[in-house]
Design a protein that fits this description.
CATH class: Alpha Beta
Radius of gyration: 17 Å
CATH architecture: Alpha-Beta Barrel
Number of strands: 9
CATH topology: TIM Barrel
Helix content: 25-40%
CATH superfamily: Glycoside hydrolase/deacetylase
Distance between the termini: 12 Å
Structural class: alpha/beta
Number of domains: 1
Shape: globular
Largest sheet: 7 strands, parallel, barrel
Number of helices: 8
Order of helices and strands: EHEHEHEHHEHEHEEEH
């Protein structure tokens, strides 16, 4: 059971303590690179905590927009977005090198993650996706890429020879089209530990999950994600552990 968690998204080193509480229950962490959240000091502290817990460590770049936590699409050129992601990754990989850890994976954050998946263009014409994949292929071809299972980024990465892990979400509701329900819709974020752990177990056992718009879908994923900024994250992870012990 591979579980990844978005971390390093606090405003002070004290916030790293909350992340540290979650680490015993996950296998990999995606650490903010200072764009949508975090700082060099927080990156370093989170990497060192993850190293102590023997977690796979990943970079989590997003739009440089801390005011909106990277969850709002920015009206900027593809070139500027790619340059920003490149800068964030270079900073992250340098800190990881100083901490003597290998960077296992890269996962995009928030609106940047969604903008690739929600592109109105066809997969072959998704310029933002293609340019980011070209960056990954050029500078990080040995690094695993995490993204939406069966989505546009998955298609682009696989066509470029990159290793891709499709993810499904423990604490988010889906729509019938397989995309995440927007956060501004009531019920889009799951904070009930029993509901979230039930969804997680269904995903692990490759069973359908209920969507927010009244359907059921089957998602095949290699890793499950929980958001570290979800106040219920610890309780959800503990419920998953409890349920998995009962079921197995």
């Amino acid at each position: 059971m591979d579980i990844n968690c978005d971390m390093g998204e606090g405003i002070s080193l004290a916030d790293c303590l909350s992340d540290n509480q979650l680490m015993p229950y996950i296998t990999r962490c995606n650490i903010a690179c200072g764009g949508h959240a975090g700082s060099e000091a927080i990156i370093r502290e989170t990497i060192l905590n993850a190293k102590r817990h023997k977690l796979s460590i990943g970079a989590h770049p997003g739009y440089e927009d801390k005011a909106n936590f990277g969850r709002k699409s920015l009206d900027q050129s593809v070139e500027r977005t790619v340059e920003s992601v490149q800068k964030q990754l270079e900073c992250f990989f340098e800190i990881a090198r100083q901490c003597e850890v290998k960077v296992d994976h890269i996962k995009l954050h928030g609106a940047l993650y969604n903008d690739i998946e929600n592109s109105e263009n066809s997969r072959s014409e998704n310029e933002l996706g293609r340019r980011l994949v070209k960056l990954f292929q050029s500078d990080y071809d040995q690094v695993l890429i995490l993204g939406l299972a069966q989505g546009q980024l998955a298609h682009l990465c696989k066509n470029s020879g990159l290793i891709f892990f499709g993810e499904a979400f423990i604490d988010r509701r889906y729509l019938a089209n397989g995309k995440l329900s927007p956060r501004n819709i009531s019920g889009a974020v799951i904070q009930d530990a029993e509901q979230a752990s039930a969804q997680a177990l269904n995903l692990i056992e490759k069973k359908p999950i209920e969507t927010l718009d009244g359907h059921s879908i089957l998602i095949e994923a290699q890793t499950l994600c929980i958001h570290g900024d979800n106040p219920a994250a610890l309780g959800i992870l503990q419920a998953i552990q409890s349920r998995s012990k009962i079921n197995h």
